[in-house]
Amino acid sequence: MTLTDAVDETATKPERGTPRRSRGRFPRWLPYAFLAPAIVFELLVHVIPMLAGVYMSFMQLNVFFLRRWLEAPFVGLGNYKFALDVHSGIGAGLLKSWGITVGFTVLVVGFSWLLAIFGATLLQRSFPGRGVLRTIFLVPYAIPLYAGTIVWKFILQRDDGMLNHLLTQLHVTDGRTFWLLGGNAFASIVIVQVWRLWPFALLTLMAGMQSITDELYEAAAVDGAGMWQQFRRITLPMLRPVNQVLVLVLFLWTFNDFNVPYVLFANSVPPAADVITIHIYQGSFQTWNFGVGSAMSVLWLIFLLVISLGYLVVTTRRTHDA
Questions:
Q1: CA-CA distance, 116 to 211, in Å (whole number)?
Q2: What percent of the chain has pLDDT over 70?
Q3: Does residue 193 have a pLDDT over 90?
Q4: Does residue 3 have a pLDDT over 60?
Q5: Environment class of residue 143 by beta-carbon count within 10 Å: exposed (0-12), middle (13-18) or buried (19+)?
Q6: SS3 assignment, position 23
Q7: Alpha carbon of 303 to those of 109, 297, 308: distances in Å?
Q8: HSE of 55 in the Cβ direction (CA atoms, 13 Å)?
Q9: What DSSP character marks residue 74?
Q10: Between 16 and 295, whose confidence is greater?
Q11: Cα Rg for the chain, rounded, in angstroms?
């Protein structure tokens, strides 16, 4: 073998430790083929219905054009003007429903976060029975939504409800309070929604607290910081990224929730619990005015987009400044 042949043979052999190129390379279209079912499903479930709703918001689609809805007359922004006219019955009802939903969302998110941060702080350190408490606290999150809400509906009933029976035994009330009617309906829906959401917030905050090392608390204790100062100076700042995402998710879930009020009240929603999801549903499927109902839905979507984007901009700027 000549010197030239030896050099050529050495150059053609792969170096030890370098991975060999696979003989059967995947075609470039294969990843897109794997993504295609998910994309088609997303188009069918979300994108196309959303575009159809935007289209219907510009049409006079009422009970007279349901069978031939493609022939419904085009009204442009007429449905939006009708929905935003606070002097009309529909506009005034939408504004009132929006105010109820904002108050409902603020209370639910606030109480859910407070209960979650208290529970996460309580369960942060090891003590006997911590695992049992974790399991008990997460039970509402594990129960199916409809099953848990139906149980609450039985609890809050007037005649044979568990809550009225308990209050009667404690001699607090006469046991004939309407919890699903009148002004008490708003408090009932807030309680049920907080019960449903706060375990998720607890789980998220507990996961966030796992990244906070014990050395920080030990150093703060050596410097003379008490529990409140440790919570204010260490726990809350370290949980800021988690709280930013958590509050936004709780806000969107609460503002968009349709299942809890519908299961609790069905089609007889009291005015005090007339949240915007139920209001749009009743305005569309009870009066059969899908044009105005679609306009309300688009306005609702724009409101959520503006609030979410504004919240993200403000929180990101604060995080950058910090």
A1: 17
A2: 91
A3: yes
A4: no
A5: middle
A6: coil
A7: 18, 10, 9
A8: 10
A9: B
A10: 295
A11: 28
